[in-house]
Specification:
Layout: E1 2-6, E2 12-19, E3 25-32, E4 40-42, H1 44-50, E5 53-61, E6 67-79, E7 82-90, E8 96-97, E9 105-109, E10 116-121
Parallel strand pairs: 3-8, 4-7
Antiparallel strand pairs: 1-2, 1-10, 2-3, 2-6, 4-8, 5-6, 6-7, 9-10
């Protein structure tokens, strides 16, 4: 189970542990974004600090219909006690957790300041 809290801006926030290329683990808060179908986005300065490995370019259609091109990196993330190698989209925004990372989980959010955020693995047998 992964738990977090709703901040004063009504954003559901969860902590993430991301492994840098040197093996050090960086703890970072991220916003749960159900409108983002990717895995995880990080800002360029954090990607540089972690020295993540560049993989490819990506394209996305934003909510306003415009298309953007961005760099995609790779990182190891501690997710619900497991080590996962995932793609990281570079974005000039706060870190965002996308729907691909949450696949197979139930998301519960108490939508008020300091409300509880919970991601629980669902058995999909």
């Amino acid at each position: 189970m992964i738990t977090g809290i709703v901040n004063a801006d009504f954003e559901p926030i969860i902590p993430l542990s991301i492994c840098g290329s040197d093996g050090k683990i960086c703890t970072q808060e991220a916003i749960v974004d159900t409108g983002f179908n990717g895995w995880l986005s990080l800002p360029p300065d954090l990607i540089a600090e972690l020295n993540l490995k560049w993989k490819r370019r990506g394209r996305a259609i934003l909510g306003d219909g415009t298309e953007c091109v961005f760099d995609v990196y790779e990182a190891v993330l501690v997710w619900d006690g497991n080590m996962l190698t995932i793609p990281i989209d570079e974005a000039d925004s706060e870190p965002l957790v996308g729907m691909s990372l949450m696949e197979g989980y139930q998301l519960t959010v108490q939508v008020f300041e300091s409300g509880h955020v919970e991601l629980v693995k669902v058995d999909t047998v």
